[in-house]
What we know:
The complex is a heterodimer.
Chain A: H1 2-35, H2 41-58, H3 78-97, H4 104-120, H5 127-159, H6 165-170, H7 173-206, H8 219-235, H9 238-247, H10 253-272, H11 279-293, H12 301-331, H13 337-359
Helix pairs in contact in A: 1-2, 1-3, 1-7, 1-8, 1-9, 1-10, 1-11, 2-7, 2-8, 3-4, 3-12, 3-13, 4-12, 5-10, 5-11, 7-8, 7-10, 10-11, 12-13
Chain B: H1 2-5, H2 8-44, H3 48-77
Helix pairs in contact in B: 2-3
Amino acid sequence: MTGDIIVALVVAVALTFDFTNGFHDTANAMATTIATGALPPKVAVSIAAVLNFVGAFISLEVAATVAGGIVDAGAITPTVVFGGLVGAIAWNLTTWWFGLPSSSSHALIGGVIGSTLVAAGGSAVEVEGIVSKVLIPALLSPILAGLIAALGVFLVYRIIRRFTIERAEREFRWGQVASSSMVALAHGTNDAQKTMGVISLALIANGTISGGDDFDVPFWVVVTCAAAIALGTYTGGWRIIKTLGTKVVEVRPPQGFGSEAVAATVILASSHVGYPLSTTQVVSGAVTGSGVGRPGAAVNWAVAGRIVIGWILTLPAAAGAAALVYAIVDLFGNGAVGPIVISVALAIAGFLLWRANNAAKVEPDDTISENPTFGAPPSAAQPTPVTA
Amino acid sequence: MISTIVDWSSLGEAVYVSVGVGLGVLLVAAFAVVSSLRAQDARAAGESAVSNAFFGATAVCILALVGAVVAGIYLLTQ
């Protein structure tokens, strides 16, 4: 009975993480498309939500990929997973509040590492796995995406230079929509599966379902994870969309198309050879690179620097939060009281954050560039008449 | 330590495929745009044969881009 309650809490917290993953990462696919005005904000996040939902069903090669090779599989219990998820949610919400596009995947991995450290000690953490599966890809992928995007966008502007630049730029509109959609689809496939893996792991650890070679992810897990990430995506993490679409560099359609197309290529090529990457880091690197490549564009390196600091802090911060959560849960013993207390605290914190966000809300129109290629600038919109 | 735990062969493959396909997609898209604009200009100038040729070139580029998207979706399913 106690085990079932803990697993039920793990499922609820995992779906909450999946939701935060969705709204945190909407920017990856749609920030540049919204910034140029190629799609209205609400339409863009709706398309991203549908594609995230569909993407979750495309492939089910899940298993324990999140923690596999990172920590000792024998050390993973539902409570360890619970602590890891809460740590990851805490960091996701923190970076969202500051509008920083950080990696949800690294937050989850960091969370699992932190709670495993407290639960089973340092020997249960596989340093080689962390270096090869997390740190090296995290270092190389944004640089690679940035360099390709910089060179590619530079060449694109060389090729189209014989035409009026505004006229040529407008031709990239549907390319932008297609490349952004591809990133949204890839995000749904990769990230929804991570939550499916986490829930499956807890179900297997509890004996609710059997593991082994013929293991199948329960259909209800697939549907709920797809729905949670799609709902989060539709909610739209407008703070991060604003940062990525308007603060790093002024995005023009060829840059938007170039950065999303390069990001999709790097993610797919790397995943195919066994290097799972952070969508967020690849897209952020590509957007920055596209700013370097466009003649006359100026990258705001201060904002880019803040984003990189967020990346560096993600793993240790999520690990620290998860370690703290696990330690608190451990104070209450092996029962379900600890996870219940933490879940209630998490719900209260989420409610308070929601209220604070309403007081300083970033609206969808705030995420459009001041000088969009398509449609009117947001400042041209007529204010809502105030009636007495 | 790094040299022993990193699969440099896979990493190299990911890098050159990313560079090749990433740059290829952008260049094909740029050529599609240039062809489309030239086709529009030729049509406006009443040069229908030139216009059709550039529209054909645009169509070929767009087909190549659609092929890249289909290949990407195929990779996602693997």
